Fold this sequence. Notes:
disordered N terminus; single chain; alpha+beta; five-stranded mixed beta sheet; globular
Amino acid sequence: MKADEPATAAQGFGNVVHVIADEVASGRTPAVLDVLMERLDSVWDALAFDAPWKSRQEKEQARAALSRFLRWHVMDRGGRTQAASEHGFDVTIEAGEYEVRIRGSMDRVEKDAEGHAYVVDFKTGKQAPTKDEVAHHPQLAVYQLAVREGALDEVFDGHRPEAGGAELVQLRQPAPKKEGGDDLPKVQAQEPLSGEWVGDLLATAAGRVLDERFTPTTGSHCANCAFRASCSARPEGQQIVE
C-alpha cells in the first residue's frame, strides 16, 4: 500500500508548524509543550492526506518538529534575542545593470549584544542542503542582502544593522549528537556575506526573466520535482520534448 502526500498536505504541514512557531514567538501561544500539542491537535484534521496512516505518521513528525522548535526557542543562542517574527519586507537592490525588487517575509529575526541582525528561516522538509550549499544558499544570502538595504531598519529603531549571518533551522531533522541530538533541530548557518556573488546571481536571474531565458538546471531539487518527467534537463523529459 502506498500513500503519496498531496501538495496541499505537504504545504499544510509546513504552514501549521510555521503558524504555531509564530504564535509562540509573538506570545499568543505559551511556550509550553502540552499547549503546543493541543494547538496542533486543533488544526491537524483540516489537512488532507490520502490515507489515515499517512496522517498519523505525519502528525508524529509534526509533534517532533514542534518539540524541537520549542527547545530551540528557549535555549541560549550566544546571547541572541528575538527582534521580530514573520517580518515582511520590500526592498530594491541594484544588481549589475538591473534594479531588483524583493518582497518577502523573514520567519525570525534576532539580534546579538553588538546589535548585529540574524535572519532565521524555519524549514520542515525531509532533506537539507550540504554545508557547501548553505555557504552559497541563495535564499539566506538574499535575506542578508535585504538587511543591508534596509529591510530591518524599522525593527532596529530606524538604525541600519549589520548582518551577522543567517541560518536554516531544520525542524524536521535532529541535530548531530554533539549539538543536542534528537531533542534539537539541525541548524545550518551561513556566515556574513563576502564578495559580490549574490549580486551577480540576482543580475543573472533578472536578465533571464527579462529575456525570457528559462533554462532548467539539474540538482538535488530534482528528486522532489513533480515535473521531472517532462523536464528538458532530465533524460526522461528530453524524450518527451524531442
